[in-house]
What we know:
The complex is a heterodimer of chains A (276) and B (288).
Chain A: H1 2-34, H2 39-42, H3 57-66, H4 68-99, H5 105-116, H6 124-133, H7 140-163, H8 168-176, H9 181-210, H10 214-217, H11 226-231, H12 241-261, H13 263-270
Chain B: H1 4-36, E1 38-41, E2 46-50, H2 54-61, H3 65-94, H4 101-109, H5 116-127, H6 134-141, H7 149-152, H8 154-179, H9 183-191, H10 196-224, H11 228-233, H12 243-253, H13 257-287
Antiparallel strand pairs in B: 1-2
Helix pairs in contact in B: 1-13, 2-13, 3-8, 3-10, 3-12, 8-10, 9-10, 10-13, 12-13
Amino acid sequence: MARAVKTQRKLINTAVAWAIGLVIFFPILWTILTSFKTEAQAIASPPIFLGFDWTLENYAIVQERSDYMRFLWNSVIIAGGSTLLGLIVAVPAAWSMAFVPSKRTKDILLWMLSTKMLPAVGVLYPIYLICIELGVLDNRVALVVILMLINLPIIVWMLYTYFREIPGEILEAARMDGATLKEELLYILTPMAIPGIASTMLLNFILAWNEAFWTLNLTAVDAAPLTAFIASYSSPEGLFFAKLSAASTMAIAPILILGWFSQKQLVRGLTFGAVK
Amino acid sequence: MATKASRSAARLMMAPAVVLLLGWMLVPLIMTLWFSFRKYLPLRGGDLGWTGFDNYVRFVSSSAFWPAVQTTLVIVLGVLVITVVFGIFLAMLLDQPMWGQGVVRILVIAPFFVMPTVSALVWKNMFMDPVNGLLAHLWRFLGAEPVSWLSDASLSSIIMIVSWQWLPFATLILLTAFQSLDSEQLEAAEMDGAPKPQRFIYIILPHLSRAITIVILIQTIFLLSIFAEIFVTTGGAFGTRTLTYLIFQRVLESQNVGLGSAGGVYAIILANIVAIFLMRIVGKNLDA
């Protein structure tokens, strides 16, 4: 009896959860589907769900007209570059805070977090002006540096919470056994730290990829990443649903896939370790 | 334990991060403060000198200010209520045993990874377009007159779009909190005959309170500065001009840097009020 009730409840849970999940996912699904339609089918009334002639021509047109690959390349460079640069700066810092904590470690960490709270719009003009003065408006390197600085607090925090979980006793034991500092770093700490570093990288890459304030305001043509590529479809091309969908699908597909791998790290990274 | 040498090595390792962030914080902040006290119109004469608190007074007394504050509050509160309430419900649901839990979780989380410009554009055109949008089709199918969402119900439409983006975040964090709930305690309460609503109010909600607070604080900080969603959909028209957007317009569109900077200082103060509460919670957690 009890088992039947349990199965029945599980069935109801499953049905409700799938229904809600599909509703939430629907806009993305619809975008992907529409990207394979012709323009006429995309605005057909009533809407066609699956029974249309699948075509790839929208992708070809979008690539040809707005040179998708160039924007994609900019996104990769900006998101990847800022993540790598951020790691180079953050790993030593998080490392020392986790393994050689001092009285001020907590204050420094909280202060770093506070810089993340600075609303971007509050410093928009100064940054804009500095970019003009240095001649780096619409420049990929400038965006790499700016996005690195924006995400640096998150990188430091995430790495810190990961590093802190590495037991210090292991290091002591290694030292007792006569390991030099170099050996300690290479053979003991690094292998233990790699998973944490990898998840930090992943989350940061996603955040940088989707960043849409600085990338929209500081780029024009040369350095514009996918966020700007899509914004250029706001009008009048936005009225061509199939092409808009193809462009959108291309902009989100890489990150959607990466995002699925990073869902566990997402919570830790975005709550600064306060929820695990 | 740490030797003197390792202490100074530690300081050296921390230095680049600290120096960079200090520069990133102080340089623009000081510039914004400086501009906010000056009459500065880059296209109409440049820096025209000291004006004291004139910009601050003008920013607040402009006719666009209070509507912008109101819009900001409505959007932030609306999104918070929707994401927290639905987030609790969804987290509770996802915590139950079911088939294909992993897949459902992925479906629910997906919107978070969609870049803001894409979700704004997709919603604006493919769903909310009054002629060809999917919602218009649905309305017509139901025999109703299609709504021009982004002009007639602009604020609710934006709340809807932003909530869609942030619901995964709230759900994910609340789900994590649910999973750390002590099931024995719940079972004990069930055995003692506590009805479901009481179990929810006295055991589940208190357990979630910290996660809820964190969701609220972090989302507030991000929501106060949403930009792309408005930039792409309405461009600040139809009563959707938030404080962030107003400052953006003052600085880059009307090129009144002094006035915009004063607005920026207000935005910084506002964000810091929220930030202080968040930092307290995070700080407490560090000691534990």
